[in-house]
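Feature request, filed as a ticket because there's no other form

It would be nice if the structure record came with a short human-readable summary line next to the tokens. Right now we just get the raw output. Example of a typical job, pasted below so the devs can see what we mean:
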Amino acid sequence: MNKSTIRELTFKLLYSLEVQKSFDDEDIELYFEDIELESNQIKTQIKEDVNSIIKNKQELENQISNNLKSDWKIERISKVNVALLELAIYEMIYKKVPYKVVINEVVELAKKYGEDSSSSFINGVLATVVKENNLQE
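Raw output as currently delivered:
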């Protein structure tokens, strides 16, 4: 299983938790009952990333809010876009994954799961996050 697939599974779990407004271990375990993973290591990695995103949710949401146009509020953003932005910002800032890789893959996920305008919206917000945080390639 490649990193892109793991990223997509992580996004799907984040989105599911966002929709349910429940972020506990039981909900996370239920998610894994429906998918087949090659190893427990992948499951552990996804769980660690999701738990870290949940733990840092306020900071991630602040990053999103601070990089929206002045007339936008985070509550106005679709749950798909919020989950994708949280995942991307987490990977760029906390995991130090090169921002070009993260943005490219998250924009592709936005094209697949989001609305027509999701990919350009996410690209714009993440470009601002990269500048604001002086992220390196």
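Something like this underneath would help us a lot:
Residues 17 and 23 are 6 Å apart (CA to CA).
The mean pLDDT is 92.
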